[in-house]
Amino acid sequence: MSTEALVEFFDRLVAEGIANIGELDREHLLTIGVAIDGDTARLDPSTEVLDETRILSLLDEEAKAWLASIVIKPATGSTNSDLMQSEAPSIDGRVILAETQLLGRGRRGRTWMSPFARNIALTMGCGVQRSGHDLGGLSLVVGYAVLEALEALGVEDLALKWPNDVLYQGRKLCGVLIEMAHSSHHSPQAVIGIGINHSGAQLVRAQVDQGLAELVESKNPPTRNETAAAVISGVRKQVDRFNAHGFEAFRPEWDARHYFSGRQVRVAGAGKAVIGRVLGVSPFGELHLSTPHGQEFLSGGEISMRDLHAHD
Predict the structure, then answer these.
(1) Of 59, 215, 224, 285, which has the fewest CB atoms closer than 10 Å, so is most exposed?
(2) Average pLDDT for residues 85-114, to the nearest whole number?
């Protein structure tokens, strides 16, 4: 089942509301939430598809001025990869969304499941004016920006999990994957990938190793288009703040929202595990732990953190 054939199928389904599945894998399509009757897939009329005009109308004025382009794809391999492969002179201000990602990626080499027309799969390019060790806090800033954007939409019971997850009632709601794009003509630019479970968590809970939440669990949940616009506006605003002041400007707020603040945790990665109590985060976004061997500072990347007493 080629990616090209799937993209063509989803293009037709979104554009026409109906598509023949042909030789596509029926079970795979059902797994990601496509409604199939016989050999025909149909788009439920109640499905909220992402709409460029609607999203643009909901952006704040600063985001509208910053935006260079917005592209919404019925399906793609990965929105991050699409932006990384852009031939545009600069990716700053360029946004890509997809109804489903066929090759979506999460941290630690994992696949990021993307049910069709249920979640937010979003990538935005942002110019970065920090460098070196200072860049370590960027992923924390993006997680914080998503949390703030969702709270502004009325979502409650949110918290952060180091380095960049957003939790709802202690379960994962959002993940962030940042890659850096370098050009001889520009300062470094960040490819910021954001995945938010809006209403498709039930389709992927059996395929992940932690508790999942979705926005529709909250009171008066925002729509997908409202969510996308708020996140684009919020991330742009906070990346600007990060560029001006670094992560240190966010640190007190971030620590105050960290779900694991003061808890005993187990942090695993790079072939070793560390157990300690979370003291906070450093000015560079490192996790600050008190361990039996003294204080340690751990960087993000290929690291997993769990509550020492959790069983998820």
Answers:
(1) 59
(2) 79
pLDDT in tens, 27-63: 989 988 999 999 999 999 999 999 999 999 999 999 9
Smallest CA-to-CA distance from 117 within 172, 44, 39 is with 44
pLDDT (mean) for 293-311 = 80
**Cα 279 to chain center, whole Å?**
26
Give the H or E element holding residue 277. Answer: strand 272-281
Distance in angstroms (rounded) separating the CA atoms of residues 139 and 62: 21
Per residue in 171-193, pLDDT (tens digit) is 999 999 999 987 656 678 999 99
Rg of the chain over Cα atoms, rounded to whole angstroms, equals 20
Residue 265 token pair: 């945790």
Q: By C-alpha distance, which of 118, 125, 174, 145 is closest to 233?
A: 145
Q: Strand pairing partners for 141?
A: none
* φ, ψ dihedrals at 117, nearest 5°: 55, 35
DSSP of 175-232, one letter per residue? EEEEEEEEETTEEEEEEEEEEE-SS-GGGTGGGSSS-B--GGGSSSPPPHHHHHHHHH
State the Cα torsion 39-45-49-53 to the nearest 10°: 130
What is the torsion angle, in degrees rounded to the nearest 10, for the CA atoms of residue 153, residue 157, residue 158 and residue 161?
Answer: -170
Three-class SS of residue 272? strand
Residue whose structure tokens are 């703030």 = 148
Extended strands (E) in 74-164: 94-98, 120-127, 158-161
| Integer Cα distance of 177 and 195 in angstroms | 9
180: CB partners within 8 A, 6+ apart: 128, 135, 188, 189, 190, 191
Q: Residue 262 is encoded by which pair of tokens?
A: 């003061």
pTM score > 0.85 for this model?
A: yes
